[in-house]
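Pair request: fold both.
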Amino acid sequence: MRLGIISDTHGLLRPEVFDAFSGVDHILHAGDVGKPGILAELQAIAPVTAVYGNTDSGELRTRLPQVATLQLDGFDIVVTHGDQLGSPTPQSLNAAFPDAQIIVYGHTHRPLLTLVDVVVTVMNPGGAGARRFNLPPSVGILELEPGIPPRGRLLPLLGFDPE
């Protein structure tokens, strides 16, 4: 199973996302969606699991949870914006969600892919919307296969080449 990982769109869905997410089976959006229409556009690619972030409006907050838990290909996954932890780190997220095997978060706009306690994959795809904090926009891809550790990569969106 191939997952598209996105966060912090803040109302902007770059055209490069459609190329980056070509062929994904499911999309995880870690909050600060911006406009509800973003989720509809992503749904045209694949099913979406999304959470609200600290800048999302009341409409999105009533439609989306703060934390989503799901199981895909046998992996227990948590999706959260992470702002409820202040400035989230892989260690603080692992402590907050000890049963998760994969944790996807946003908020910091800093792309990150790491392991915690050898078996927990933590990914922040970075901010996919307007460039903020002098960081380039990016998304992530996670590939899941039962019985083997997840494989992931971060993809910059500016100058994206799907090859």
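--- second member of the pair ---
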Amino acid sequence: MRQPVVTGNVRGAAEVKLAVFGLDSYLSLDDGAYGEDGEGRPELLRAALKRAAVPPEAAVLLGDTRADVAAGREAGVRVLAVATGRASASDLRNAGADVVLGDLSDVPRVVAAIGA
């Protein structure tokens, strides 16, 4: 399973942030989209899908904001929202997330939600 990064950070900054937490080895940095690839979340998401050669219906966006959910909806991907940020689970459901989790601690549940 490929897991590209989609972030508003420029690529160099994203690489540093991911490396600090040891996440860089788990993600496909070359297939991602960064601040220099577009201005808005939907545009970045579409750029990552194109770069990774993945059709929208085969992708899942993990996000924690209503804007993440909206971007996923606009790009035509499934959205798994995690209520670990400012948005509540109810906010994320109302924004249109396909699945809402309270956190990512239950790994089998997360994997099942991604694969559903």
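Observation on the second member. The longest strand covers residues 28-33.
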